[in-house]
Write a structure and sequence with these properties.
The strands form three sheets. The chain has an eight-stranded parallel beta barrel with strand order 3-4-7-8-9-10-12-13, surrounded by four helices. Strands 5-6-11 form a three-stranded antiparallel sheet, with no helix packed on it. By secondary structure, it is of the alpha/beta class. It contains eleven helices and 13 strands.
Length: 369
């Protein structure tokens, strides 16, 4: 069935109910072997953080918080998946309703609050999955953990997920966990990354291979904050930056129903600001840290815009709600066209085409999901 025909039915449900219904039915289609042929996985080898991706279009964290639907989601054509955010202990998240559609703008507001079943349950789900592709795991802190003790939660999750992850994302940018974004401050971030890297080095030595680390940041940053975060990324040898999470801004949607709801705004209205932040980091990091662009991508052209701004790869979430799984293929095709145009103009590979030397750490395969 075409997604355009299914969407009115999904949009008749509450957004969170529609989310659950969609994942459950994707799982049924996967088990009936009806997904793979509809959304073939297109090959466009891309190197990001030293990892070889099948293609540069990934699934963003938040869609599958517990890793329950890895095999089904892998059949939608993504080049890589990121699951989570996961916390040490299970938590229910914020009270419902906590997700709202702003359909006129192709946007979503959510205040989910890191609802998940805890890291141990996620690991059980990963062990059950058959997927052998690139799997990122997004980690966070429990809401009951004081922000001053956040490092304890991140280290706990890091130690648990290390042998299962192709890369690990440190999420300090959700607006729905009290004071979490305080960790983006220069001193707070330096303390956090110092502790995480100490644990990370120990794990790499114990396991004999290196799993890259990425940091996921907010779009609501001042220039001074961008400067401080970029410096910390380089100082602590972080492999990747995911830009960006959702925004607290309501610019462009002020008059729409649900615009007054608290939470993070995602979708099309986020695209411009998210890309501006991505561009700012690209200038400051100058190729020393690989970038993944996420936020407001609902067309292939917007995916290309992230690459033009300096990203090596992109991730999708809210755009899928409005455009359906075909958005993955649309983005891949647009990126392929972009690559071809770039090669035609330069007759030489650009940074997007040849990232073979970006793996800073050669302790073994990073792609071990």
């Amino acid at each position: 069935m075409s997604y355009s025909l299914l969407r009115p039915y999904l949009f008749s449900m509450h957004p969170e109910k529609a989310h659950e219904w969609t994942l459950e039915n994707l799982e049924r289609l996967h088990k009936a072997h009806l997904l793979g042929f509809a959304y073939p996985r297109q090959s466009m080898p891309t190197n990001c953080m030293g990892i070889s991706l099948m293609n540069p279009v990934g699934m963003a964290a938040g869609l599958d918080k517990n890793g329950e639907y890895i095999d089904a989601l892998a059949e939608l054509g993504f080049g890589f998946l990121e699951i989570g955010t996961v916390t040490p202990k299970p938590q229910a998240g914020n009270e419902r309703p906590r997700m709202f559609r702003l359909a006129d703008s192709g946007a979503i507001i959510n205040r989910m609050g890191f609802n998940n079943d805890g890291v141990d349950k996620m690991i059980t789900n990963i062990e059950r999955a058959k997927y052998k592709g690139v799997l990122g795991i997004n980690i966070g802190k429990n809401a009951t953990t004081p922000v001053e003790r956040a490092l304890d939660d991140y280290v706990y999750c890091l130690e648990r997920v290390y042998p299962y992850a192709s890369y690990i994302t440190i999420n300090i940018s959700s607006p729905n966990t009290a004071n979490l974004r305080n960790l983006q401050g220069a001193n707070e971030l330096a303390h956090l990354l110092d502790g995480i890297k100490t644990c990370h080095t120990k794990l790499a030595n114990e396991y004999g291979y290196y799993v890259p680390l990425a940091l996921k940041i907010a779009p609501d940053l001042e220039i001074s904050q961008i400067d401080d975060i970029a410096k910390n990324l380089i100082d602590f040898d972080i492999d990747g930056l995911i830009a960006t999470n959702t925004t607290l801004s309501r610019v462009g949607v002020e008059d729409q129903e649900y615009a007054h709801e608290t939470g993070g705004l995602s979708g099309r209205p986020l695209s411009h600001q998210s890309t501006l932040v991505l561009t700012s980091f690209a200038k400051r990091l100058a190729g020393k840290v690989d970038l993944i662009g996420v936020g407001g991508i609902d067309t292939g052209d917007l995916a290309v815009r992230k690459l033009s701004a300096g990203a090596s790869a992109i991730q999708l979430y809210s755009g899928l709600i409005y455009k359906g799984p075909s958005l993955v293929q649309d983005c891949i095709q647009s990126i392929a066209n972009y690559k071809e145009r770039t090669l035609t103009m330069t007759d030489e590979p650009n940074d997007f085409d040849d990232l073979s030397n970006t793996n800073k750490h050669d302790l073994g395969s990073a792609n071990k999901a």
